[in-house]
Structure formats: C-alpha cells, structure tokens
Amino acid sequence: MTAAAATLTAPHTLARQTPAIVPALLREYGAATRVAVEQALSSVAAAPYLGALVTDYPRRRGKMMRPSICIAVARAHGAPLDEIIGSAAAIEIFHNALLIHDDIEDGSEIRRGTPTLHMLHGVPLAINTGDAMMAIALQPLLDSLRARGDDIAWQAMSATLHMARQTAEGQALELGWRDGNRTDLTETDYLEMVLKKTAWMSTIWPAQLGALVGSGHGRHAAHPNAVIRFGFFLGAAFQIQDDLLNLVADAAYGKEANGDLYEGKRTLVLIRARQRASPAGRSDLDAFLRLGRTDRTAAMVNDIAGLIERTGAVEYARCVAGGLAGAAAHEFGAAFGHLPPSRDTTFLEGLVPWVFERQ
Amino acid sequence: MAVDDKPARKRRPEPTRTAPDRTGWSGDPAPVEAAVENVRRKKPPPAKPDPNPDPDPTPAGSGDLPEVSQIVAEAVRIGYHVIGENLKQGRTAADRFRAGSYQADDLPSDINRLGKRMLQLSRDLSTTGFDLLAAVLRDPKILAAIRPSGDDNSDRPPRIPKPTPQDPVPLTCVFRGTRGGTATPTTLQPPPRPTILTLQALKPVGGDHPAITGTRFRPAQAGRGIVAVITIPDDQPAATYTGDVTDEASNTVLGTLTIEVRPPGATPP
C-alpha cells in the first residue's frame, strides 16, 4: 500500500453522519429510474451494433445520485413520481452517454469494474453509442415535460442546453490542460473546471429539472440561484472526494487505482502537490507530466503518489472538500429550507455527508 | 517648445484589486477563522505509521497542514467567486434572449446577500456533520462564539424545526391474483404517530394502462416492517407501476412503491 493509501483508508477520517434515508432513497429512486431508462432505451433494442451497447453502462449499476437528486427535489415540492421519472431517466441516460465519450477521451480501460465500452467494441462503435444515447435521452425528458406547459418545458430545455455547453467547456478545459501540459494552474482554475465539467451535469441540472417539474404543486419554488449554488458546492465536494478515492481505488470503486495519475489529470491534489513540492520534487513531477500515458509506468505513478502524500496535498484536498461541503449545507438551507420537512429534504441535506462516506 | 507648467499629476495608489469583487467574502471572516483555527488545533489523530517510511521525505509542505483556517476560508471564497462569475455570465447570456428579465440593480443586493450568507456559513461550517468541522462542537468557547444569536436579518427563509429522523421501515409486498409481480425493495418513513396508510393507485410509468387500486397495508406478522397486499387484475397489462404511500392523518408521503407486473405466464425471476 502506498503512503497515500494508508492515510486515506485510516478509520479516523469520518464519523458516519449520513441519514439512513439516503441509501434507502438511492435504492428506491434508482430502481424506478432504471425501469424508465430501460423503457427509453428499448426504442433501439433491435438496432444491430447499437441496441446491446446502449444498455451496457446503465446496467453496470451506478450510484444513481443524479436522477435521485432530480426526483427528490421534485417530490420535496410535492410532485408525484410519475411526473418526474422521465426527467430522471433522461439524466441517467445522458450521464452514461458522457461516460462513454469521457472514457474514450481519457483512454480509460475500466468502468464500474468492467472493461470500458470502447475496449469491448472499439472506439467508432462506442462513439456512436454515446451519440445515440444523447439523442435518446431527450425523449423521456420531452415526454415528462409535455404536461407541464410551454414555459416550464422551455426553461427545462434551456437548462439542458446550458448544462450541455458547460459540460463540454469543462471537458475541453481538462483535456486542453493535459494536452498543453499546463502546470501553472490554481485552485480557482480547478474549481472553474469542476463547476463546468462535473457540477452542472451531476448536481445542478438534476436539481434544476426537479425544481422546474416540482413547481406548481402548491409549494413555493426554490430560488434558482440558490439551487445552482447548492449544486455547485455539492458537486465540487463530490469531485474532490472522487479524486481522493481514485488514489486508493479498489474493486468497489470500479476504476483503475491511480487512474487519474496515469492520465495526468489536473486534480486539486496534483495542483497543490506541485505548489508545495520541493524544487527537486517539482522537477520530478513536471518530468512525469511531460510523458504520454503509455510511458508512465506503475513505479513512476507510485513515486508520484508518494510525493503527493509528502506534500500534504491529500489532507489539503480533504480540507477544501470539507469547506465546500459546509457551503453546500448552507446553500441547502437557502434553496430548500422553506419546504416542509420530508424524507426528500432529509435526503438532499444528507447527501452532503454522504459524499464523504460513499464507497 | 512650450513649457508644461501644469501642476504635477496626483497619483492614486494602485488598487488592491483590479476586478469587481463578487466573492461574497465581504462579511466579517473572524467566526470562520476562529472555528477553523480550532479545527486545526483539534486535528484528528494521525494515521497508522507507515511501515515503510520514505527514506528521503520532502521537507517542504509537510502533512501537518499548518494553515487549515486559510485553506477552508480560501476554498469557500474561491468557490463563491467561481459560481458568482458563472452566474453572472449566465445572466449576461440570458439577457441577450430575454431583455429586461434581470434588473442590473439586483447586483449590489446579490453581493449584500452573499456577505450575509458567509456569516451564516460560519455557523454551517460547524454543523455540517463530518468530523473535520464537527470537532468545533466539542469546544464550549467556540460553540458559544458561532451559535446563532437572534435575528441577523438574513434573507434565507426561516428554517422549520425538523423532527428527529427515525430509521426507515421496510415495506414488503404480497401479490394476490393469478398474475405475478415484482416489487422494488423500498422503505417507508415512520409516521410520527399511529395512523392509517393509504395508496390511492399504482399508476403506470409511461403508457396509459389502467391504474392498480385497492392496495392494503398490514403490520408484518414476523420481523419488522409493513406488508402491502396488492391485488393485480387478471387483465392488467405487463408494465411498471408506481404510487405514493401516504400517512392519511397528515397527508404526508412516507414512501414510494414501485412494482413490475409480469406478462401472463411469465415465471418469477
């Protein structure tokens, strides 16, 4: 075990604070969403070289955080499940489509414990599958918005387009930083990238759709900007914790151990480590980052992981994630504090500690 | 050549910043710094010693993390800055399409609100629920310093006191009739007092099949939980159906039941 792994798996880190309703609703809403996802994807079930591929990632059983946020926000406003389930299915399909493309762009080999789609079927078919899923995702979204009227539908589609653009910009930033071997990045750069690449798709957009569909059910709607801020801080804390988990990846995590280091991703941990490293350590890190992915050996990655640990960057990232989670807890009150307590509001608030306790 | 006899130009000091400050960090940072300083002092015990210590540790930036307060405060400040700038860009873009929907006069009040939120944030930072910050709660002096004191004119909606959450109760399904069904494992939020559980109808997820009605609830005869008895009509189309389980007394949704009706003759999974 590397030094980084020893620290991250230490039992002192967190007392369990996640309410029991969080895993319960993730299972419940996740199961309902999977049914709707299968139904939507069945439209291309008979298509050769496509039908079997579109269901691959969704059947690998993700955590279903994104659709569950959408459903919980809508239901916290009083909307019934059948009104929001189509939006939840759209979110999950879109998310899986992006995963397919991300895996190709990142050169990832493992997704949820199984070879990535492009490793199984080749890059051209995988790209086509992702394209198809993005288009298919719109159908359940449109279906669920049909009954909500033109204004809500227009706002939901605007939010969807904005999310898609932000996500593409975020991915472009991350890829461009690696391709250009940028080493002058700051925490602000990182958080801007996370906002675009992760938070809009993972937390902001689902909460926005939930609030839009939930509006008009007799409860005062959440303030749009507070919803965005809640989603941003929650998504940023989620991403930093994801970066930390990547350093100790195991079978439950479903990705390659140290996969981010192999890919040279500009994570907060890496940015901090470079800032804090000794001149010799910084030189080693820069030399490592100049290499191509296939040239980075396991021994090199282990050396860099050790360097990161020695700079205190892991503990630093954990602190930042804690601070951002505090901001998320604050913005939860601003966005949803006016709604009557329910299992859905408890779930949404409970996602803050869950981010740190998920496996 | 004309002589420039103008008086020497007054020179202003260089501004400390060159761009608008939309960080929302205009509030007094002292509570955050005090809270985080306490966290730094009460840092969790170190991890188990590495059995294979590095023979040549890097001296710069040890893992002792001497600047926790600055890290947390700076991270949150940057976070508000990033999301503030992004929202501003979003507003600008929206203005192109919907002129007049956003009033420029809103901006100063946005900043003002953000400042107030930062004060509230200093309290939330101590009550978030993970031990990095929860350590604050064990120090009476810090607790007193960050406890809310009266009305701070915050713009946030008043918080409704929350009941103590109880563990969810498992819900099991029993199907009546010749048709088979499969239920998604689920739980119910326990009602605060004895009540009657109702489920108006299990509606199809997509499609326009008739709903399934007549679901009854009983306490489990063995073990813990509630049993839902669902009668599936013989001619019910195979599909997925869902409905809310409600506390009749308070009209509160306690959970959602989702079932799949199998095709006629299909064997159970």
UniProtKB/TrEMBL annotation, chain A:
UniProt GO MF annotations: metal ion binding; prenyltransferase activity
Keyword list, A-Z: Magnesium, Metal-binding, Transferase
Transmembrane segments: none
GO BP terms, alphabetized: isoprenoid biosynthetic process
Pfam families: polyprenyl_synt
Swiss-Prot/TrEMBL cofactor(s): Mg(2+)
Entry annotated with the keyword Cell membrane: no
Family according to the record: Belongs to the FPP/GGPP synthase family.
Protein name: Geranylgeranyl diphosphate synthetase
Natural source organism: Sandarakinorhabdus glacialis
Lineage start: Bacteria, Pseudomonadati, Pseudomonadota, Alphaproteobacteria, Sphingomonadales
UniProtKB/TrEMBL annotation, chain B:
Biased composition (Basic and acidic residues): 149-158
Protein name: Uncharacterized protein
Residue segments, region Disordered: 1-67, 146-171
Organism of this sequence: Sandarakinorhabdus glacialis
Compositionally biased spans, kind Pro residues: 46-58
